[in-house]
Design a protein that fits this description.
The structure is a homodimer. The first copy, chain A, is α/β, with parallel strands linked by helices. Chain A contains eleven helices and 20 strands. Chain A has helices at 48-54, 111-114, 149-152, 157-171, 185-197, 208-216, 230-241, 255-268, 313-334, 350-353, 356-362; strands at 6-14, 19-28, 36-45, 59-67, 72-77, 94-95, 99-107, 120-124, 132-136, 140-142, 176-180, 200-205, 221-224, 245-248, 251-253, 283-287, 292-298, 306-310, 346-348, 371-373. In chain A, the strands form four sheets. In chain A, strands 3, 7, 8, 9, 10, 19 and 20 form a seven-stranded mixed sheet that branches. A six-stranded parallel sheet of chain A has the order 13-12-11-14-16-18, with helices on both faces. A five-stranded antiparallel sheet of chain A has the order 4-5-2-1-6, covered by helices on one side. In chain A, helix 4 packs across helix 5 (185-197), helix 4 (157-171) crosses helix 9 and helix 7 crosses helix 8. The A-B interface holds A 52-53, 56, 84-85, 88-89, 92, 94, 251-252, 257, 268, 271, 274-277, 280, 287-288, 290, 295-301, 303-312, 315 and B 52-53, 56, 84-85, 87-89, 92, 94, 251-252, 257, 268, 271, 274-277, 280, 287-288, 290, 295-301, 303-312, 315.
Chain lengths: 379, 379
């Protein structure tokens, strides 16, 4: 087991000088405590939520490569105007990677830890872009026999986010929902959940190709925000489903406000009396991503019963508590190869993750390009 | 009582042609039912919330006067772009006036109704810009002896809105609040409530004159959004008070986002670890007015734990229920001449309400100009 003693770990550092540096550092693998295990990480996805930490506010079109083949280094410039938002992480070398999967290669002394020896487990907890990860037994989820690390690498973020959306919909009293950037991996999962659970879902996409992806997996309501009839199409789909809550990955621009406007129009199509405050039905948009970094623009043409806010998985899980969280996780495991299957377009090593040609693809956050890192690939 | 049989009532009509018409119509006074009373309206304020119905989306700089001295008519153009938001009220002649006070001049047969004969009562329920108003006993609140109709005319909207803000603050887990357009009648009430109840309040104003108004009534934290040091001043006041919720009467532009940004900066001044999602403390701005009709612009430089939404008094009262609502109303009556005293700059008749020179003043919604209508003035 000598090879376990140290391993490469990806680090992201933003310097006070305004430079982003992404590098691989050799770190000692901690000796596991009684209730801990060491996992050889074999699969860890690049989610949009990882990119925020990996590249921060840096302009990746300025990225330059240096370093060695084994330990490449990427540098890029952070625009002056964006440095304020990076203030809290300046000059701190930060590990990256929210989730992943791999094989337990070393365990602590507890029975629970020992029971995991040799098992393929899914993990959550950060610092997954590394060859080895030491973590508590409670942060691992053993995968069913016959499941590969690649199949279990995305067990948490996308599946629980998609389930978090339908759960939030129910808890806040809505009966159907809308989703933007809806052809994403996450969006496809959400479609499968909604089809299975009989929930009305309005998919909002930005191209015909994305609409096709969703139609092929059986999506019932797909509207294209680049179509000249978008507002009417969206209103009709909202009337048909009754959706009064939306989850928005785009963030910037007019889309959140357009959704609220169409919801209000849809509701008023069945309203009986005029209220100058608009309908009394609460309309909600939760912004959970930032594919468009521009400001959100709300023209408030949708009455007074509305809300827009940020939505994140971890605060949601805190709010619903451990028992409910475990129920959602169990569903993910049960349907890992169907509802919650992820598809990747590339599998790369840690070194390849720091290649300019790959960065140019995954940093774009384009729908359809999805990367999986295998930190022990070719290692 | 023959004079009670009919009375003038103000009406606002927006025609499909895009013309606003404000007029006075002579309407028969209903015979009160068993549990109803007829009130001679002697005082009814023009609140910002009334202007929304009174002038709608019309451009009041285009207003023209016609009609007779006794029954004047005002017409004005509604801009093409704003007609969509008026769709639900087109070609409906609508009475105006949320609240008011007056003397009970006729009653139904029930004991509760009879007990109000000759009493001065405060009223809520719309259509108050009228000489007579027939309404249920439950919609009247008898004023204490020695209280005039003018003193009791604004018992509901502003006082309950101000109390609704501190109640919402408490119910949603915040310990202090911020308020914009803070030198308004409502803002002054809110200051008096917060000083009395020991609640931290950050007042945001748009001029030195407005700051002076608040300093004179003992406001502790007043910041001026037109000052070059506004963002720093606001952040400091938020640190000192710990305010994480704001009520915003302005609506459009960048202010709501600036408040969230300063809250986030204030919270992070005491934060211990970096989170790329920003602080986990929920920051909320409720928009309850629209002094600035432009779109809301949110640059999202404030993490993910935030919300912006509409806030209205009546849904709030529905939510807290009858018992809590009665408790708030009783406080208003108890402190009507102190905490909840309203000040008016003009008292006008119904006819004067339709004079172009008065409209030019009250339609501006300027802080410091507050109109009270006495529908029976000179009548």
């Amino acid at each position: 087991m000598s090879e376990v003693k140290t391993g490469l770990q990806l680090r992201s550092l933003i310097k006070k000088s305004g430079e982003l540096e992404i590098s691989l550092v050799s770190v000692p693998t901690p000796e596991p405590g009684a209730d801990e295990v060491v996992v050889r990480v074999e699969a860890t996805p690049i989610n949009p939520s990882d990119l925020g930490l990996l590249t921060g506010a840096a302009d990746m079109t300025t990225a330059k490569a240096s370093g060695t083949r084994e330990q490449p280094v990427i540098t890029a410039k952070v625009p002056e105007a964006a440095m304020k938002s990076m203030a809290a992480r300046l000059d701190e070398s930060m590990p990256v990677g929210n989730e992943g999967a791999g094989v337990v290669v070393r365990t602590g002394s507890s029975d629970a830890a020992k029971a995991l020896m040799g098992k393929t487990v899914a993990m959550i907890g950060g610092a997954m872009y590394a060859q080895y990860r030491c973590l508590r037994v409670s942060e691992c989820m053993p995968l069913p026999a016959g499941t590969t690390a690649a199949e279990g690498a995305s067990c948490f973020v996308n599946p629980l986010t998609a389930l978090g959306m339908t759960e939030t919909m129910r808890r806040e009293g809505h009966k159907a929902l809308a989703h933007t950037a809806a052809a994403s991996n996450l969006g496809q999962m959400l479609n499968k959940i909604c089809l299975k659970d009989g929930i009305g879902l309005v998919n909002i996409v930005r191209s015909e190709e994305q609409a096709d992806i969703l139609h092929k997996i059986g999506a019932k309501h797909v509207v294209d925000s680049t179509s000249p009839t978008f507002m009417d199409d969206l209103t009709n789909a909202l009337v048909e489903t009754g959706a009064t809550i939306a989850f928005d990955a785009i963030g910037g621009g007019k889309l959140a406000g357009q959704i609220l406007t169409c919801m209000e129009t849809a509701i008023n199509k069945t309203a009986k009396a005029y209220s100058r405050y608009g309908s009394s039905v609460h309309k909600q948009v939760y912004i959970y991503g930032s594919l468009d970094p521009r400001p959100v623009e709300l023209n408030r043409a949708f009455g007074m019963a509305w809300g827009v806010g940020g939505w994140l998985l971890f605060p949601f899980l805190m709010k619903i508590g451990a028992t409910e969280g475990a129920r959602l996780r169990q569903r993910v495991i049960d349907e890992l190869k169907t509802t919650f299957a992820s598809h990747y377009t590339q599998v790369v090593s840690l070194q390849e993750t720091l290649q300019l040609d790959h960065i140019a693809v995954y940093a774009k956050r384009a729908t359809g390009a999805k990367y999986l890192i295998n930190p022990n690939k070719g290692g």
